[in-house]
């Protein structure tokens, strides 16, 4: 199945999906208008179109570039280095880039026999970001959603065990959010 | 070994190891020398310059990579390989020559006994003193056999396992092939802190190693080390050995339980199940031997295998079907009894960390090893006695080499088999271990008894 | 019945075959190198501890930019302006140069970025780099310092030669 | 599968009650292959609940990448799956090249394939050795390391490092290989082929090893797909999914090789998939060595500080552990705006919570070993 065939099929079966503005290179990228129809859409994709392999769950915080303050935990103890070594390159905002206070979730689904992949995108507001969990459909979503919750702070409603997975218990905040500032903890002294 | 000297001569300027391109402020000329632009050769094209190792650490410098493809092409061209083979050959020849020169040890023992008796008679001491002193000497000798065996067997295991794994094992301690490695390890273990965990039951924890090691020393009493060479010539020697060897399992369970560690507890539980089960095929597998020999005395069993059939020694292992089967069952059960690799589930390194001796340290820990290697030696001597004719020579023409050398050689061969098995096989799972015992070894050991009965009936 | 015996036989055969493999390697020469007394010389491209030549460095900051973990810092040398001695003028020489080996990735990016010929910063073949304290991890170079550099001992407040790095090769070879 | 999970209910009916025991497998345990902790609730030797706990090695590479240039991120990738770092380098470079529109010259592609396949052999050798240790055989481990050492020598010759190569760069590879290297590589392959047969004799077809692994840790194909497994873990269940065939990169479609598939999804099948993959990798390496035509290895005009156009790219490769993917977002700056790593080990580890239940403690090690995880990749 080629991407065009898949696109026409999707247009027929799931008309509420629209082609995303930013396409992930080489893969067909579709955008969901709202979180309400996510479960329904993915179920249809899994059961009717054979996308039974959830390859990736990811999320992008579109707030803007990283703020370097609070990025490095400790001042550098080395005498010759400048105090509090700076990050390798401090990113600046690109002019005219549509930064927005939204988190964009990205799912990549694969149909193994047909050798075709589909990227689903969904934007949710940064504050109280929540989307339905895909755990009921794909067990693969279990840990990946926990990872996104841990690092990006997106609550997956309906997840059986939505707890931190990678960062330690005492770490406050969600590190991959662009406005994350490290809060001092017991290991900082 | 003259290589490093050559290398150093090859270095044109006698550069110190830490090359000093420029003295800090003292030698501006030298600094200028380094600054001066040099022709920058392509790194890949230029052959590697002569390496200069720091004097403190580097003695020998290898200029080429050690790939097996190069090493295995012609192993005899390697000096170390030739040397190793020579050492091995010399060792065997030396032992044989010593044996031939010394002769039968039992002869010397008789002389010594007569000497003691004469000494006692001269002093007008009661005659029973002779036997008491004699027994004490025998006890001491057997005790030391077990203790020194620990040192020797661990060193040997290290060397054998290393060579099996394309390594060389200990090489430094003691100078010659690391012979002192276990000795020094023993000293280290003695000096180590003896830790008893807080959760442990102190008394049981301390008592367990003793209960593990005492039976193996006691069990050595009737073992024959050659013709007429045993500490105690017991008529029920086989039963005696099996009875005492069975006691150790209590110590293992105690160790597992008293450590206050979940892994140790699991190890102890596994050990109890395994050791008790494997006693059965081990015992039944030698019943055919006892039937043929008609005795439980180890010396009698060994003597029953004397003689030759058309040049083939009349050892029990060469009896058709029955002999090899009994041998294999006894060997497997012995490996299981000693908790060694295909059957080492009580101390499974990768699962239970170390099983029942996880929480032991220092000398207590090493006592478990003493017991383990004691059992290996015991099993080796038993295998040699039951199946390989004891001290009988494999060659009809050989009248020079005494029985104790043959006995020792056979026991060491069996010990090597133990090591070889250990370093080849993966580990069974607990339930598979039980299946193998109850569904394979035990039925076949029964069948073997039946075969032996038929053989005796129709002989 | 036949199946049972063939299974037993196959199992026994596989067992014996496995033992033969180990026996075969037992009589082959060992492939190990006895490390403290025998040492291998790495291949030419080996990325060992970094060396630096303060003499050739032009203080261009490319290595500082190339380093992924920001472990390199340097300071331009300055001379007083002949017209106005109060103003210091930067020259294409390095005043001091440090590498923090605690952060170094040994990734070769600094060496690749170095524009001078021969290279001012380059990987030696030294794999025996040992540090006894955190201070030793930061190597410092000034004009006239050896290629291996020195470190600043904060307790004794003095520059010292690193003890831990054992040079195994002519330091010029890689440049 | 859930036999063990039902055990507590059955207990209540029987007069003989037994307590379950909680065991911490790790983080300090010889068989967890790193710093993994599995909380096991066991009843006798039977697992009733297993909770894998990861994150001990989390280094936040995704966040670090947001303040580093694209060239520097390649260095970060080395540290995920440190056992096979070449595919890590490759996947990042592929994603970044897609963003930048770079085309790799043919020799560069062949070298990438060559290095990745050699690294796959090295990684599977490590698996072979450590799995042997997990099952209790120590000797195969040292045999595997003996061979792996030669591959590391090859990598040292070409890239200068033995573990963290940083060899595959944006636009190609770091440096070209020499003729001497090619000869050494052929020498190694010639040496390695018969060794594989010996491994089979020593471990693969050993009756004890087969008994330990054959009917243990079964993963049916649907379960494997649903859990998002990849690599030999998925193919051990018989699902024919290999990125090299399904979504070819670096010209893998030009190579002639097969995808070994398992039948039942047992530990032995997963193990055997890896051992068979080594044979296939040997085939690919030989083909790649033949394909090496002279030419440049680096695309011209790779910027020192690349600033790709805003966009998103996803690239994935068949790493030694499975489908390793990278989702890269650029907002036009010198560093990635967002880097998401889809790590195969992370997915392969997640299934443990379902797979371990109902097995024995010894089988935990066998199953854990057969998933062949690298904690550096799980935690990133």
What is the fold's blueprint, element by element?
The complex is a heterotetramer of chains A (189), B (459), C (175) and D (380).
Chain A: H1 3-13, E1 18-19, E2 24-25, E3 28-32, H2 38-48, E4 53-61, E5 102-111, E6 116-125, E7 130-132, H3 141-152, E8 155-157
Parallel strand pairs in A: 3-6, 7-8
Antiparallel strand pairs in A: 1-3, 4-5, 5-6
Chain B: H1 3-10, H2 28-35, E1 60-62, H3 68-71, H4 79-102, H5 105-123, H6 128-164, H7 181-191, H8 202-219, H9 237-245, H10 248-258, H11 262-285, H12 287-293, H13 298-304, E2 308-309, E3 312-313, H14 322-337, H15 349-352, H16 362-387, H17 403-422, H18 430-457
Antiparallel strand pairs in B: 2-3
Helix pairs in contact in B: 5-6, 6-7, 6-16, 6-17, 7-16, 8-9, 8-10, 8-16, 10-11, 11-14, 11-18, 12-13, 12-18, 14-16, 14-18, 16-17
Chain C: H1 2-26, E1 38-40, E2 50-52, H2 62-66, E3 72-80, E4 88-100, H3 109-113, E5 121-123, E6 138-142, E7 150-153, E8 158-160
Antiparallel strand pairs in C: 2-5, 3-4, 4-6, 6-7, 7-8
Side by side, the strands of the main sheet of chain B go 2-3
CATH superfamily (homologous) name of the domain at 3-71 and 96-157 in chain A? NADH:ubiquinone oxidoreductase Nqo5 subunit
Q: Shape of chain B, please?
A: globular
Structure annotation, total helices of chain B: 18
What does this structure look like?
The complex is a heterotetramer of chains A (189), B (459), C (175) and D (380). Chain A has 189 residues and is of the alpha/beta class. Helix content of chain A is 18%, strand content 23%. Chain A has helices at residues 3-13, 38-48, 141-152; strands at 18-19, 24-25, 28-32, 53-61, 102-111, 116-125, 130-132, 155-157. In chain A, strand 7, helix 3 and strand 8 form a beta-alpha-beta unit. The longest helix of chain A has 12 residues, at 141-152. Chain A is globular. The relative contact order of chain A is 0.18. Chain B has a two-stranded antiparallel sheet with strand order 2-3. The longest helix of chain B is centred in the first third of the chain and has 37 residues, at 128-164. Mean pLDDT of chain B is 78; it is low at 1-49 and 55-60. Chain C is an alpha+beta fold and 175 residues long. Chain C has 2 domains: 1-31; 50-160, Alpha-Beta Plaits (2-Layer Sandwich), CATH 3.30.70. Chain C has 3 helices and 8 strands. In chain C, strand 7 and strand 8 (158-160) form a beta hairpin. The radius of gyration of chain C is 27 Å and the shape is elongated. Helix content of chain D is 49%, strand content 12%. Chain D has helices spanning 7-13, 61-65, 70-77, 85-100, 106-135, 139-159, 179-204, 207-213, 221-226, 232-235, 243-246, 267-291, 344-350, 352-355, 361-371, 375-379, and strands spanning 21-25, 37-43, 46-53, 168-169, 172-173, 311-318, 323-330, 338-342. In chain D, the strands form 3 sheets. A 3-stranded antiparallel beta sheet of chain D has the order 1-2-3. A 3-stranded antiparallel beta sheet of chain D has the order 6-7-8. A two-stranded antiparallel sheet of chain D has the order 4-5. The longest helix of chain D is centred in the N-terminal third of the chain and has 30 residues, at 106-135. Mean pLDDT of chain D is 85; it is low at 1-11. The chains are: A alpha/beta (189), B mainly alpha (459), C alpha+beta (175), D mainly alpha (380). At the B-C interface, helix 2, strand 1 and helix 6 of B face helix 1 and strand 1 of C.
